[in-house]
Design brief:
about 45% helix, 10 strands, 2 domains, four-stranded antiparallel sheet, 18 helices, four-stranded mixed sheet
């Protein structure tokens, strides 16, 4: 596995250098306690030298727990070309300095059972916006055969939050304005988007396409349902694809990889994401940590991880996207297109760059709580959007961003 290669590579580096290595794992979830634990370790004067995460760098920067790693990024760029995706710099380059080193890139996609859609006479390449995806999902659903078209939740989870955010942005809603400092969630466009979501998950019309229990799914549930052959569509990181390939799952040869639905104005709101190396503020072995980062990025060590990663672990530097990498899997070309996309789509922070305040949209579950209030009949869409907006206003003001 990638984890095994990663650990073995790190261990070999330490052994070759005569360094005593202490590797431990932390809760990687957005809702986990990594940030708090790292802050406590830094304040106690005993932080880990080096961390690998996929967490929000602006929040770690705000907590003042990171060392400047600009020199390492500049060296990596000199060796391997520009950093991709373009959003990496928007996340980790703050006030002209890099506070995390891009290690790997990845991109989510939509996955569809091509055989199921073909049998219904649906050409997946003709699907455009969310309505067309939803209509297609309903058409192929047959609960009597345990086939449900729609394998995407709005429950509190990384996948659920990404989906809610994307629908809102696709309808023209925004969480913040172009400065990233003013909350603008309460708008007709956002209300229209959450009304669409509520209709999808509560109306009798779409009930046949929803698997039992979908409103309580976690981040692994959609993977499990897709791999079990009970859903025709899901949206996910490439983990579901990699697992199907690894296990020779019968769904694998019938899986089509699709771009996400287009926004209502026809634009593609999608970008790659990044896995980071960070050096903790006050680390005891900064020079060794910097050397180790470059050792891990070296193609001799990095390429085996890509080959084992099933699309979850891809280069974060342009010139590392070699023919050898693209030959690993025919769908890597589609991922390259996403990761090389010049549109700086920054998720919930769009159209701004992410900051410590926007990081709370997901980590505080503002979005899934808003949908839960509507689904459970506690609030109307208008009330729920206003409630979420007001909660964000409080968070932004607590972080020194006045909203009056």
């Amino acid at each position: 596995s990638v984890q095994t290669i990663f650990r073995d590579t790190a261990t070999k580096y330490a052994a070759d250098k005569g360094i005593e290595l202490d590797i431990s794992t932390a809760n990687p979830e957005l809702f986990g306690d990594f940030n708090a634990k790292l802050q406590a370790a830094v304040q106690a004067g005993n932080p880990p030298d080096l961390a690998y995460t996929t967490l929000a760098i602006p929040q770690l920067y705000f907590l003042d727990v990171l060392e400047d790693v600009t020199d390492v990024v500049e060296e990596a760029v000199k060796r391997y070309g520009d950093v991709v995706p373009v959003t990496a710099a928007l996340n980790a380059q703050i006030e002209g300095k890099w506070w995390a080193v891009p290690f790997q890139s990845n991109a989510g996609a939509w996955f569809a059972r091509k055989d199921i859609f073909d049998a219904a006479g649906i050409d997946l390449t003709t699907l455009t916006d969310y309505n067309s995806y939803r209509d297609a999902a309903l058409e192929v659903s047959d609960p009597s055969k345990n086939m449900y078209g729609w394998g995407i939740t709005i429950n509190k989870s990384g996948d659920g939050h990404g989906f809610i955010n994307h629908v809102i942005l696709s309808y023209g809603g925004r969480f913040v304005n172009e400065t990233g400092e003013k909350v603008v969630l309460n708008s007709p466009e956002t209300i229209e988007a959450v009304t669409w979501l509520a209709e999808t998950y509560t109306s009798e019309k779409y009930k046949p396409m929803l698997p039992p229990g979908i409103l309580s799914w976690t981040d692994t549930s959609n993977n499990e349902a897709y791999l079990a052959g009970t859903v025709a569509f899901t949206s996910n990181a490439f983990s579901v694809y990699g697992k199907a390939k690894l296990d020779n799952n019968p769904v694998f040869p019938n899986t089509a990889v699709l771009l996400p639905p287009l926004a209502n104005d026809g634009t593609l709101l999608h970008s790659g994401a990044t896995g980071w190396f960070t050096i903790s503020k006050g680390a005891q072995n900064i020079d060794a940590a910097k050397e180790m980062i470059l050792y891990m990025i070296d193609p001799a060590n990095f390429t085996p991880m890509v080959k084992e990663g099933g699309g979850l672990f891809l280069p974060a530097y342009k010139n590392q996207w070699t023919d050898e990498i693209l030959a690993v899997d025919p769908n890597f070309a589609a991922l390259k297109d996403i990761i090389f996309n010049e549109t700086p789509f920054t998720g919930e922070a769009y159209p701004a760059s992410p900051n410590a305040a926007t990081g709370n949209i997901n980590s505080q579950a503002i979005n899934s709580q808003m949908m839960s209030n509507i689904i459970n009949g506690v609030m109307t869409p208008e009330q729920a959007v206003k409630d979420a907006h007001d909660k964000l206003v409080v968070i932004f003001e607590e972080l020194g961003l006045p909203q009056a």
